[in-house]
Structure prediction request, 179 residues.
Amino acid sequence: VDLTLLKAGWSRNGNYHKQENLGQLLEMIKARPKMYLDHKILPEGQHHLKLSRSAIEWTATIEEARVEGDSIKALVAFTDNPNTVWLYEEAKKHPEQVQISVDVMAEVQNDFEAEGKVGILIKKYLFYFSGDFVSYASAGGKVENVAAGLNNDLTWEQVGIIGEAIRSLDQIINKEQKE
Prediction:
């Protein structure tokens, strides 16, 4: 599965991610390749507890990651965890509904102005906890292509056509075997 983990620039929640910091974040992502379902929400001051996540929440593993233009892209493999298989199926059916968010600790600057907006500048990433599958991503994280393992150039329409062809062929073979 191909994903965008983060896109530089203004996020929906008013944080500005600098493009020149993507390489720094990329190295942190490569060091912690597990992805989970949702961010782990903890009370203020207990962020250190995010380092320990339940295996039940482990959803995918980042197999490769790269900076591409103004984004961090990744190729991931979903786990066979029964509690997360449904997410893979949803990503195939409704990729726009399965979004990605990075959970980080950062050094920030308030009242940052750029491109006619005012918000929080992410000056430096201090720690990357995880990349998580969420229902609403603020920094451009999304599913790009579920059929990436087959062919990175396939469109969703082509994937659907291939799936229908395989099902039809399977029905013909089963019919012939019965006769």
Remarks:
- The two ends are 39 Å apart (CA to CA).
- The beta strands are 2-7, 9-10, 15-17, 34-37, 58-68, 71-78, 99-114, 117-134, 141-145.
- The first helix runs from residue 22 to 31.
- DSSP finds three helices and nine strands in the chain.
